[in-house]
Design brief:
Blueprint (H helix, E strand, L loop, with lengths): L16 E3 L10 E5 L2 E4 L13 E9 L2 E8 L6 E7 L7 E2 L3 E2 L5 E6 L5 E5 L3 E5 L7 E2 L7 E6 L5 E7 L2 E7 L7 E7 L9
Antiparallel strand pairs: 1-2, 2-3, 4-5, 5-6, 6-7, 6-8, 9-10, 10-11, 11-12, 13-14, 14-15, 15-16
Length: 194
């Protein structure tokens, strides 16, 4: 009797995804490439968003999960949505909508397992992930926060810049305040260009 070969999970090959503007209301401009060329990925919005324009702010794939950040509508009626796909864009799950109430997204970043974070005007930030699909506000950000990054031990880090000084602030999982953990002075010779 021949020896049995070990069972190997078949890993679905990743296909390229890209984002572009789409003028069809309720439809995101996310496209997937197959052997037959580019086609619209299956992410159409329903309910209150099916008649609104959708903009893809960011699109990334890490560790087999594609994460997209989308805005719908405009002005005070604009909302932000997180979207996740583990099937090459064929099936998506959506976060609860986050009303922006006139705030603007100033930066976006991604963490492990599909987590996403946004910085909003007014020194506010929100995070979401595919496990909860809800938005969670973070404590008020340190002044001049440029972007958030996933922390090495969980939680998030806020990066602030003032002239030649970069400060890293840590928000540990479950913490309510930001703690400055590192300050880096970057040598810049002001007035040296031109």
């Amino acid at each position: 009797m021949p020896a049995r070969q070990p069972h190997r999970d078949r890993v679905q090959p990743r296909i390229p995804l890209l984002a572009a503007d789409c003028t069809r209301p309720g439809t995101t401009g996310i496209f997937a490439h197959t052997g037959q060329g580019w086609h619209l990925a299956a992410l159409a919005l329903s309910g209150q968003f099916q008649h609104q324009n959708v903009t893809v702010l960011r699109l990334t794939t890490t560790a087999g999960t594609t994460t997209a950040l989308l805005t719908t509508g405009s002005g005070p009626a604009a909302h932000l949505l997180g979207a996740w796909s583990t099937g090459n864009g064929a099936h998506w799950s959506l976060s609860q909508p986050l009303p922006l109430r006139g705030a603007k997204v100033t930066s976006t970043s991604f963490g492990p397992r599909g987590a996403a974070a946004i910085v909003l005007t007014g020194n506010h930030a929100q995070t979401t992930d595919p496990a909860t699909r809800s938005w969670r506000p973070l404590p008020v950000l340190p002044p001049a926060t440029a972007i958030l990054a996933p922390g090495a031990k969980g939680g998030w880090e806020a990066l602030t810049v003032h002239r030649a000084k970069l400060t890293i602030w840590q928000l540990a999982s479950g913490a309510r305040t930001w703690d400055a953990t590192q300050v880096i002075t970057v040598p810049i010779q002001f007035g040296s260009s031109g």
